[in-house]
UniProtKB/TrEMBL annotation:
Residues 1-22 form the signal peptide. Keywords: Signal. NCBIfam families: aro_clust_Mycop (TIGR04313). This is Lipoprotein. It comes from Mycoplasmopsis pullorum.
């Protein structure tokens, strides 16, 4: 009997690697099939963006999709909670947070993490994202109203005709417009481009593409631009990008004049170093792209027939 048990136990020991190998093989096959099914559900142009981002390295692409399909719905709940304390249209929210400073700081970190890292999730779930009309730049007055009577009337009308919020009907990408950005003297981000992801006929989401320390990044700029009456979107977006950086230069000059009026020895070069492209494309700070985008849109809207409305990411619809 002992001999029989010994033989049986020995057989199990030798057979175990075979069972484990078969189990692992089946798991790997299932995982690959699931990953393939997930990647096939991705919009074609979004998949092109993924392939371009990884230089068509299939191993990296497969690993990326495996990771993406594991992102849980908790991310939606975390964002929707964080945005209550740190709305993206209030770039100075931290300074205005009062006794909510700790929760605001945590909310800012969470939202920044999503914008920095989760560009694929954001685009692949774009129809869940809800955008809020945003005419503000550096300063948000804490309500939908403003001392600007024209703006006040416009917002009231948008509430009435239910255009204050915008959502997209599907995740389908119509086109991707790529606009290169020229570096300035103290810039740290290399090979910068604005990728305007076009949804439907006239709705665009900007994504910042850049390299830093020989590594490539894509960063969500949480805006939705709704364009009316444009014969050539690419030319319009190029003009908008140029106007954004013209607004940045004008803003810097305004700051220089103001600071010199306070201190004739104001170090403007040091100011430029501390307000380079890293700071321009950061979030929740005065003097970031939000103010310049606001000015650029005003310029475009007053120059010609084209009208651009800017909406900012407000929350995620969990039920959509």
């Amino acid at each position: 009997m002992k001999k029989l048990l010994k033989i049986s136990f020995s057989s199990l020991i030798f057979a175990a690697p075979l069972f484990l190998s078969a189990a692992c093989t089946n798991t790997n096959v299932t995982q690959i099939q699931y990953q393939k099914k997930f990647s096939q559900s991705v919009d074609a142009k979004l998949n092109d963006l993924v392939e371009s981002f990884f230089d068509n390295d299939q191993k990296q692409i497969q690993d990326f999709y495996t990771k993406q399909q594991q992102i849980q719905s908790d991310l939606i709940k975390e964002f929707n909670y964080a945005i209550l304390f740190a709305p993206l249209w209030d770039v100075n929210v931290y300074s205005n947070s009062g006794d909510k400073v700790k929760r605001t700081n945590l909310a800012i970190k969470k939202i920044k993490s999503i914008l920095y890292q989760d560009w694929f999730w954001f685009l692949n779930n774009i129809k869940k994202q809800v955008f809020v009309f945003n005419p503000y730049g550096n300063y948000y007055d804490g309500s939908v109203y403003s001392s600007d009577e024209n703006l006040k009337e416009k917002i009231q009308n948008m509430y009435q005709d239910k255009t204050i919020l915008v959502t997209l009907k599907s995740n389908h990408i119509e086109n991707i417009h790529e606009i290169k950005i020229t570096n300035s003297k103290y810039d740290q981000l290399q090979n910068k481009k604005l990728l305007f992801i076009q949804f439907e006929e006239n709705k665009l989401v900007p994504i910042l593409s850049f390299e830093f320390k020989n590594k490539r990044y894509l960063r969500v700029l949480p805006e939705l631009l709704v364009v009316e009456k444009s014969d050539n979107l690419t030319n319009l977006l190029s003009d908008l990008t140029d106007s954004l950086f013209e607004a940045k230069n004008l803003y810097d000059e305004e700051e220089r004049e103001y600071q010199i009026s306070l201190d004739p020895n104001f170090d403007f070069e040091n100011y430029l170093k501390n307000n380079n492209d890293e700071k321009v494309f950061d979030f929740y700070r005065l003097g970031n792209y939000s103010e310049f985008l606001k000015r650029a849109i005003i310029k475009i809207n007053t120059q010609g027939q084209t009208q651009i409305k800017r909406y900012t990411w407000g929350y995620v619809n969990e039920d959509k």
